[in-house]
Batch of 2 targets.
Target 1
Amino acid sequence: MNEVANKTGIFPICSKISLEEREFRNHQRCFVVLLTGLPASGKSTIATELERKLFDLGKHVCLLDGDNVRHGLCSDLGFSPEDRKENIRRVGEVARILANLGFICITAFISPCRKDRKMLRQMSLQGRFIEVFINAPVAVCEARDPKGLYAAARANRIKDFTGISAPYEPPLSPEVEIPTHKLTVSESVAMLLKHVLSQCRNGF
Amino acid sequence: MNEVANKTGIFPICSKISLEEREFRNHQRCFVVLLTGLPASGKSTIATELERKLFDLGKHVCLLDGDNVRHGLCSDLGFSPEDRKENIRRVGEVARILANLGFICITAFISPCRKDRKMLRQMSLQGRFIEVFINAPVAVCEARDPKGLYAAARANRIKDFTGISAPYEPPLSPEVEIPTHKLTVSESVAMLLKHVLSQCRNGF
């Protein structure tokens, strides 16, 4: 009986279906794919296209968007450093749940801090976390600015904007790096798809 | 642009894969199954057996246990009324995510309050929530007491224990009611399985 059970009468129950059984049925390994990068670097575009292509190839795949959870699971959280960290922690918990259910779970959000990305990696099963650096220079992202966010940040209408008024810590050793200023969207997606497929076929 | 996006630059992105596509591939409808009832009424036993049987029938199914999430997603929460409500809200959010990904999502937890169960129903897609009342008299549950929790509650070592020192509000119109004091485990699981299968075949 663990500490929580001792104090509260909370006993976890265990599914009788193992991860191995789910993977065997789905004919694929499962893991978490984190797309990190500056605003307008191309994360969401690549994530949605990657999900579509994997689904069309018969894979069990889902997209857990850091922004979408803000409207549901994390609707109680604000944007203080503590709340941002808690937001990432919850995304990590749900990503783990989804990967343990046999999905390739794609998550896309800025996640500017190395220590937060490290936390996400540590929350995942060993060897089942793919960090993808969606890399474009800030000048390129700012020139794209499809949502007008960089302009708003320059005008001080958005505070602590990553890349302008808040730091982005580039990954030091990501599993994949996609230079979206040098590649088309199709090329970027194809590059990432190739890597993901090699991982999910591993052993199947 | 919604309010959150206005203030924060948070824009939700949308998966390009619809629920209909996932259901079509999985050959099943998906929904949330909530098992509610007193401690030791049989929720966890029935939930794990139901998941196993559905999986063996080729269904896409998962078990989201109210106690398990206490150790992960809700590890920041205590047992105050506010925290209990937040716990249920997060379980509901994750259940919705899972059902929207094509799963039959079984959730098992006491959930003693009608208004909380109503909230869970409202969080689910219309017509995709099955409330299952695992019903046994408190005297029967107390006689079972496999974890010694009723004894601990009688000795005041656990406070606010549902059925002893905290109220349980029975469902008024559950989709299914399983009287576990009158049925064996096998009979209980078979009864629920029959209902769930009728729902997930609907239209497939």
Note: Chain A has a mean pLDDT of 90.
Target 2
Amino acid sequence: MSIQCPPGMRDFYPEDMRVQNWLFDHWRSVSRAFGFSEYEGPIFEFLELYELKSGAGIVSELFSFTDRGERRFAIRPEMTPTLARMVAARANALPRPIKWFSIPRMCRAEKPQRGRLREFFQWNVDTLGSEDPLADAEVVAVAVEFLRRVGLSEQDVAVRLNHRGLMKHALEALGVPVGQQGKAFELIDRSEKIGDDAFCQHWRQHFPDSDAERVADVLRRASLDECLRLAGAGGDDLAQPTRQFREMWERLRSFACEAYCVFDPRIVRGLAYYTGAVFEVHARRVQLRALLGGGRYDDLTGLLDGPRVPGVGFGMGDAPMLEALRELGKLPRLDEGIDAFVIDADAQRFDDVLGLVTRLRREGLVVDYSYKRQAIGKQLKQASARAARYAVIVGHEWPQAEQVALKDMTTGQQRVAAAAELAACMRR
Amino acid sequence: MSIQCPPGMRDFYPEDMRVQNWLFDHWRSVSRAFGFSEYEGPIFEFLELYELKSGAGIVSELFSFTDRGERRFAIRPEMTPTLARMVAARANALPRPIKWFSIPRMCRAEKPQRGRLREFFQWNVDTLGSEDPLADAEVVAVAVEFLRRVGLSEQDVAVRLNHRGLMKHALEALGVPVGQQGKAFELIDRSEKIGDDAFCQHWRQHFPDSDAERVADVLRRASLDECLRLAGAGGDDLAQPTRQFREMWERLRSFACEAYCVFDPRIVRGLAYYTGAVFEVHARRVQLRALLGGGRYDDLTGLLDGPRVPGVGFGMGDAPMLEALRELGKLPRLDEGIDAFVIDADAQRFDDVLGLVTRLRREGLVVDYSYKRQAIGKQLKQASARAARYAVIVGHEWPQAEQVALKDMTTGQQRVAAAAELAACMRR
């Protein structure tokens, strides 16, 4: 009987796993460099946790099930509810700011189709317990440092930033009543995807008192200053978002990542819980989904017990990022090279080969050998196929002096070496 | 509303995550040192995959669910079926031996109670496509090298080995017909747990023609030679298992891990698919569950399409191993230290602090700073709380010469250093 990998799920054969690990290693090392600590949660949570955050409508988008005790659970579709739960449980004990990251595996019950994954990994970076725009700028700087390290320059990608507080005021000035801005954000979120004509048509339906063409024009072309001017009409309470946003831009300059950043009024993030700065990363020249989305929220733990915890953070999925790196030719070739492949010049020496292999592995080197006893030439071919940096040949010099032939597989040079000095040689 | 972590699941706060990462890093580096490549699969599979391997009875032990297309899936309770599926799909393309490892997360629908986890991680190491006892010895050597690296000596733990082929013959000689050995293996598997009296009672019920006391005595005391003598009565086809087992022991010696290994006729592994050598790792002085279980199987992909693939491998769960390390006092103290904490001597210098922080992070160091502008003393306390190796104080020397005060937080020594040399200083 033949059984396949479930639709929308992925097998990671060693060559795929090397790419995942390369990505995860970058995610981890950048997060750590910025002083973030890793956390993790369970693969499934009580279903109520997601209903609480997103309403009962979320259930159809989740893989949910019950246990024998009739408790309802769902595989996590995002990390934020878990983060909220964990922080709420220890809100008073955790020193502020709470700088945490995670690389959770998560699932969504997407209809299986090309490019729609049901399972993916997502890098989550959050700073909690601070309202300082410094925190907003720092999480953006984490994202930018990752982009820089994987070779994506400001010509390749852009961080597009906006502020929901400013947009609220600007929209009011453009004729959208405060109570209907959720719908407006949703339409703006889709404006690039659906194009100007469709956008204006939808806009007119929902907001007959607002000039759709003018809105489209603002979204397409407005600078921060224009938006501020527009938003200025909204009232006095604009002072705080303006100060916040300008301070964040100054901090982006301090973190030397301003070159990646552009103001873009089309970035509003449909999600209801964002309240301040919002941002996305997009490839500049290729048309791809957003590579990252994030923003500031007033109260992470609002729906759970515990004190108010403001925060700012982002999520970056593995699949869109790897797709972008592939498209832009930035994915490195990742060979699973080994340090040494140990060869017997004579089947009688095989036990010595295993002894030497064991010694080198204990010294921390990555070492392999042939399971089959065969000619040196064939074993050298295997060494080559395994991308070994060195071949170590155990021959007749072994019994007297524990000496081997050490062959550099890159240069082809070969010399006699004592077993005791091999590890040091190879580390050089 | 307060929502908890689901029963039997775990939250990993940063201090827990450090322990997990410490364990996973060891699992990865040991596997790689031995030439094994990492793979992964999806978190859930078609339910049929598990039914095929274990029968329909397995369903109640799984978390299963259907998608909108009424397809049935289950969260993986073990990795072997996924491994079988992945190998079967490429059986002819993969070079032999296939040496693979994985650190999958998996779930079982255990009744929630103390010590019974519903979610755990399990290190899986398998060598496929070789029947050579060398492969059996090598996976045992991988396990032993891990034990050695985490500080567990042969006084702390033992690898208890046996061979199902030998046991079949020995049981026949002890009066258990060939067709009923599944039940016999199951009882032997539980013999230590239930004690001699209960074992003999059960044995008598199932095998009235077999001397229960004699069996119990053999299980408790037999050496390999005694078992071989017993098994010898079984017939001529004993030659192959005997040769295999003896050759494996010789290879364990070649891999220098013999000191950890003992023959133990009680180790039979209940699982039906093992056919050759079987082994478990147990703590010697503390009574804990097995820390590892594994063995040889004739045909991994037998139930799926594809050619016959023999193999040998083991699984080690994260929770029992961490429990053992804790019990034995071998779990190291893991601080999340940072390389440097950068301090402003004067709030006017804060922008310079952020610039220097950015520069050091780009050079690969782990660097943090205070979100609050406050006195040097308070910032130094924060540096200490973060277990920073160095405090870097940006003061009045900065504007002219880009010089800082560099304080070694271990020795307390402080000196003036140029910004350009900081990274090199700290790496030393």
Note: The first helix of chain B runs from residue 14 to 33.
